[in-house]
Every structure is written in structure tokens, then in C-alpha cells.
Amino acid sequence: MSQTSDWPLPSGSIRYLVPQFLRDKLRKHPLSCGLYPISFGNYKEALGHQMQRQDHDDFLLIYCIKGSADLRLKDQDYEVSAGDILLLPPGTDHEYKTKDDDPWSIYWLHLKGEDCHLAAEHAGFIKDNYLQKFGTHPKLIQDFDHLIDCRTGGYNVNTSVYAANLIRQILSYIALLQPATASARSSQLNLDTVHALMQENLHTRLDLDTIAKAVNLSKFHFVNKYKELTGMTPIQHFLHLKIERACYLLDITQQSISEISYSLGYEDSYYFSRLFKKVMGIAPTQYRRKQRH
């Protein structure tokens, strides 16, 4: 197993190592034997994060959503910035170090299995083309968040098989992004940036001034342009993302309505329940009962 960074975790960051007995089960299970996680997590504003590996025996994927880092691959120097994905096969010597003045925030995972090479090629990482620019995509961020949530399911085989197939979904989605990447860069309003910012702030409140500043537009022009492109206001979409997240938590966790409400930035659970019903047509308690019958 490749060495996983022992760098001290900052607040809000996660490092999860799949225990050996679960890796053995995943390696033998028919639904995960081809591709399964060894470890995964996220590092937020990872000041001081660095790693050098010469003995690298698994696949490593890093998705940078903010900040930047210096990368060295096979005696070549690169810069990793927000929206870049790095996918390295086994045996690839590498070294990276986050920028001191702009530390990166990343999702990362180590994986093994006989299908990893095929999945990497399908995603477009072939012929030493290990670092590619895709932009910050809300669905990718959401899928990584769902993967990280799997660690809360305990050392459970079914949860781990689900995690393995989430990784397949992530790599398959990266393949879908390949043709769209160039056109997305030329868009007058970068919706990927807007939606990624929304995803990163599902746990709190996000005002229009902050979003507009992120895309270098006035609040007035941002709201008009966003509605022109999507058919709804930014605040409406942000609310829908929060409710979507709430549905996910209602489906897979035992958290109370108050806990879910608080995790999404609403201190008043009754207010949250009214918003939920406005979007979904039923209250959170009714939604949970319907999903379990």
C-alpha cells in the first residue's frame, strides 16, 4: 500500500483509511473486485501539505477545487490549480507541495483493482497525460462528498461496496466532461464556478454579493445572467441544492431533522421544514417515512 500523508489535518478535513479486513473483502467481492478504495478524504486550505513518493503501488486521484500546488512528475515541473484533476497509475514517482500563499483544497483517493487502468483510460488519462483541467463541477464535488459520507457507515461491507461503485461513477463522469471542457471555459458566466461555490457552502448561508464577486460581475448583472441561463435565480438554485442534500441525509442517515437543519446552515428547524415542504411538497418527516416504506 502506498504511503498516505500523515500531514496534520486542518479543521473540517478528513482522512479515511479502509481497514485491511475490508480491503480483503472488497478485493474478493464481485461488485468491487475490479476497482475499490484504499483510502480517501479531503484537505481544506492545506497549508504546508507536501508529499514525495517513489514506491507507489496504487492509483492516486487528486481533484483540486481551490488554491494551487507545485507538482513534479518524471523530472517535469507543473502547477496544479483549481479545477485540475491528477490521476497517477502505480509506479509513477511524484512529488507535490501546496503553495504557501495559496494553499490548495483537494479531494483525494487511493484505489486498486484490475479495472483501474481501464477506468483511467476511459476518463482520458492516457500516455502520460496525468494532469488535466476540467474546472470545478458541482456534481463531481457532490459525488466526492457522498463518497466521504460512506465512512460514517461503520466498517460495513455493503457501505464499502457502495463506495467502490461511487468511485466508478466519479471516473465515468470525468469521461463525460471531456468534450464539454473547452466550451465551458469560454462561457461568459462560469456556472461551474458558481455551482461549486454553492456546493462548498451548503453548510452555511451564501449571499449574492459573495457569488457575484467570485465571477467578477455586479450583483445585478450576475442575477440577470444566471436567470437567463438557468431559468431560476441563484438563491432558488442554492435552496434546491440544500434540499437535495437534506433528502440524501434523510435517506441514508439516522440524523434528526434538527441535526440535518443545522448541518445545512438553518438554526431554526421549523423554518427549514417549511422550506423543505415548499420545494418537495411534503415535510421532512413525511419524506423519511415514505422512503422507508
TrEMBL record:
CDD domains: cupin_MmsR-like_N. GO terms for molecular function: DNA-binding transcription factor activity; sequence-specific DNA binding. Residues 192-290 form the HTH araC/xylS-type domain. Transmembrane segments: none annotated. SMART domains: HTH_ARAC (SM00342). It holds the Pfam family AraC_binding. Coiled coil: none annotated. It comes from the Bacteria. Keywords: Activator, DNA-binding, Transcription, Transcription regulation. This is AraC family transcriptional regulator.
